Amino acid sequence: xxxxxxxxxxxxxxxAVGALAIGSHPSSAQMDTYFCGKSKDGVPTTYAxxxxxxxxxxxxxxxxxxxxxxxxxxxxxxxxxxxxxEEGLLNYLTWGIQxxxxxxxxxxxxxxxxxxxxxxxxxxxxxxxxxKVAQDVMNGAYAASGPVVQSEDGSPQYYYxxxxxxxxxxxxx
Length: 173
Hints:
alpha+beta
């Protein structure tokens, strides 16, 4: 009888501890620095979580592509931002050409090209100016200091400082 009572108490204790352990660990999405969420007006948005736990809107995904909805593009690109961040390749945003397409990419250091970095997303329209797109992402206020680097095609290469952006951009609760 005492053995059955002890076994029942042990089983109940194990279940309670297991439930506490499961409940106390946030999901991986809650722990990611970069994630997809909805803005107050319902727009899929790539967010960055600051060290204080607040979130900064990085990209609002409003335009539908022929292949992806704004929600799907938000999920895909947010995961790329997170991977670049985890690999230490998200210090600056810049642009380049990969497989004949204009891309916005992240790089570790000022002066690196997209070949040394990580491609975050392609531009939808061949007429899109990648420098303007990267600048729009960074709200135009966070260009890195130093000389403008000449790109492979002779046009100016701009670098946008993600760390400064996260320090100075407005946050949401």
